[in-house]
From TrEMBL:
All residue ranges annotated as the EamA domain in the record: 19-149
Keyword Membrane annotated: yes
UniProt keyword annotation of Membrane present: yes
SUPFAM superfamilies the UniProt entry points to: Multidrug resistance efflux transporter EmrE
Keywords: Membrane, Transmembrane, Transmembrane helix
InterPro entries found in the cross-reference section: AA-Vitamin_Transporters, EamA_dom, EmrE-like
Pfam families noted in UniProt: EamA
Transmembrane portions of the chain: 12-36, 42-63, 75-97, 103-125, 137-158, 164-182, 194-213
Identification of the protein by name: DMT family transporter
Membrane topology: Multi-pass membrane protein
Protein localization: Membrane
Recorded superkingdom: Bacteria
PANTHER family: AMINO-ACID METABOLITE EFFLUX PUMP-RELATED, INNER MEMBRANE TRANSPORTER
Length: 233
């Protein structure tokens, strides 16, 4: 697994880090919704991955970290799985889904990630037993999120695409959970180096896919020969 230790008793700094993570992660849904006014979903997903890869790459260089050796194929295989299930797939689904559903609904569904992770960990991680108290805690947290945001966000709507988008949001939570399990099963490696490798792989997947589907211009679906028209118009 990645070299991440979990303190038995969380400190104030740990709680502050959790709050910061919640703000950053939750704010990304609003940012995606704003970006959709001028960009296509695939370009948004690719841009997020590229920005993250550059940021972590710079951090790795500053810390003197190196990517895992290519000879460590098992590490890179896990990094590829993390790239797909925790970056490329969920980022794309979230961006597309938010063209049909509200950010509040996405926020509610993200609360399912711990529940799915607990269920998957029970089957794929030794020692991670699914206890009644754990299930009750996650269920209580989910109810709290629904109450805070409002039950109206759970309305499936009558449009077929709206329903598919809501199912896609559920798929995102499952995808994140799979990515979490893949990370936990990875051979021991520095987490920053592992994440950097995964983001590079995710970029290698998303960049050619986005150009093939959306074309050169990030603002429309026109092909390369319409690029100038898109920029000027």
């Amino acid at each position: 697994m990645t070299d991440i230790s979990s303190p038995s008793k969380p400190s104030l700094l740990n709680w502050l880090e959790v709050v910061a993570l919640g703000i950053i992660w939750g704010g990304s849904f609003l940012s995606v919704r704003i970006a959709l006014d001028g960009m296509q979903p695939l370009w948004i997903a690719t841009g997020r991955i590229a920005l993250a890869a550059l940021t972590l790459g710079a951090l790795s260089m500053a810390m003197g970290l190196r990517l895992p050796p290519l000879a460590e194929r098992k590490v890179w295989l896990h990094a590829l799985g993390f790239a797909v299930f925790s970056n490329a797939l969920p980022f794309t689904l979230i961006a597309w889904a938010q063209t049909h559903v509200q950010s509040s609904f996405v926020g509610i569904t993200m609360a399912l990630v711990p529940l799915f992770t607990l269920v998957l960990a029970h089957g794929f991680l030794p020692g991670e037993r699914l206890t009644l108290s754990r299930m009750a805690g996650v269920a209580l947290g989910l109810v709290g999120v629904v109450v805070l945001i409002g039950v109206g966000a759970l309305d499936m709507g009558s449009n077929t695409l709206d329903k598919v988008a809501r199912i896609a949001c559920i798929g995102v939570t499952l995808s994140y959970s799979v990515g979490s399990i893949i990370t936990r099963r990875s051979p021991r490696v520095d987490p920053i180096a592992f994440s950097t490798a995964a983001l590079i792989l995710a970029g290698m997947i998303m960049v050619p896919l986005t150009f093939a589907v959306e074309g050169v211009c990030p603002r429309c679906r026109r092909c390369a020969r319409r690029w100038r028209w898109c920029i000027s118009g």
